[in-house]
Amino acid sequence: MRVTIFGTGYVGLVTGTCLADVGHDVVCVDIDQAKVEGLNRGVIPIYEPGLEPMVKANHAAGRLHFTTDAASAIGHGDLIFIAVGTPPDEDGSADLKYVLAVAATVGRHIERPVVVVNKSTVPVGTADKVQATIAAELRARGLEIAFDVASNPEFLKEGDAVNDCMRPDRIVVGSSNPAAVEKLKRLYAPFNRNHERIVVMDVRSAELTKYAANAMLATKISFMNEIANIAEKVGADVEMVRQGIGSDPRIGWHFIYPGAGYGGSCFPKDVQALARTAQQHGYGARLLDAVEAVNDSQKGHLFELIQRHYGGDVKGKTFAVWGLAFKPNTDDMREASSRTLLAQLWAAGARVRAYDPEANEEAERIFGEREDLVLCDSARAALADADALVVVTEWKQFRSPDFVRIRQALADAVIFDGRNLYHPDEVEAADLAYYGIGRGRSI
Ligand code: UGA
Predict the structure, then answer these.
(1) Residues 7-30 pLDDT 10s
(2) Are residues 206 and 77 part of one domain?
(3) Do both 164 and 117 map to the same domain?
(4) Best of 154, 267, 272, 274 to mutate for ligand 1, by most ligand atoms within 8 A of CB?
(5) Would the ipTM clear 0.90, i.e. be above it?
(6) Which of 173, 201, 229 is the last residue of a domain?
(7) CATH code, 225
(8) CA distances from 249 to 244, 245, 246, 254, 312 (A)
(9) In which domain, by residue range, is 391 found?
(10) CA end-to-end span of the chain, whole Å?
(11) Residue nearest to atom 10 of ligand 1 (CA)
(12) Which residues form the UDP-glucose/GDP-mannose dehydrogenase C-terminal domain (predicted)?
């Protein structure tokens, strides 16, 4: 099928590439000329395992095109996807300016019936706004062209995006128009293996499904962080508690890892946006507000542990920080817990030697040159001349370090483990003090 995708960010680029990979003819449009030129030369703007060879192969095979020419791209697709960003507005609600700008562009250029499919994470009711925007442009052109607006939210995770896209656990299609549903079913047929994965529903339910999924996952994390904080107070180990509850299939093993708080471009923004939508409809979403509040304070928890260890004075201390990205396998630092930690350390007069396997460049872009930050090119280099180690992101390569060597490197012989990667006994056996999240027994 002929598909047009607006936006070559995470969602647009990965979706476009996967659709091309199963044989569809895909044109990706972006307003960023440099990005489009780069993609046409095989330069991938994001770090995502497995994506680069797929983009190159499908581009070379002539099934995946990148352009800034919206008009010709709109002429190409039977299905036109909107996969542009929805950053938070000042009040936390999703800013729809990019989504509606694409809708207007579509309205200005369509010449034949199309299905416009919204993949961006948008508040309930956005499909109606997209519909109205396109209709207004058509009216201005004095044209009557049939079009439909469907919702098809994306559930892929950064770092595992290609896999999620190629092997989705569900495909949500929101549309009450049987012809549009049929088109989307045909498009996704190659991904719909073994059992029916396509769930068809009305547009508003599809829009809400996306927020409900992310809010549920964020709730699990904040819940576990709360239990961790209680564990710390009562002298229990949350890692034991996690193992004690995860085997109950009603709870499950996923997303019950306590840590330094959730970050990224989705959870913080989506929890806030859903709470805001609820409020706009006269409902105060107390649970969502609490999920957000717990996460905000959790991001400061590592620093609290550090302060506790140092009796409130870290002035002049140097901290080795392992991990800057909001999670492993990405270079993304949006809303990352590391940013809160670094800001707190700097405000308290401490210095940082940081290492991230992928996000060093991003850190340089965000923080610029500053004398209290050294970006190191290995985990070991970060330890040199440091007083203490703080682990913020659970990259695989940080999982089994040589604690004896760490002990030799650190002047103050202490590890703050923001992701509970280590067993306290193992760390303490190397004569290092250990602080984890919710590990009351070791404090
Ligand atoms: C999230 C969802 O998992 C995807 O399903 C969704 O499609 C995506 O948002 C989106 O809306 O686009 P992502 O933000 O890439 O994906 O990252 P996650 O793997 O979900 O992790 C989010 C944060 O939660 C990370 O900071 C991670 O460290 C934290 N986390 C995760 C925990 O603290 N504990 C856990 O048990 C799991």
Answers:
(1) 999 999 999 999 999 999 999 999
(2) no
(3) yes
(4) 267
(5) yes
(6) 201
(7) 3.40.50.720
(8) 12, 9, 7, 10, 42
(9) 202-443
(10) 60
(11) 266
(12) 320-424
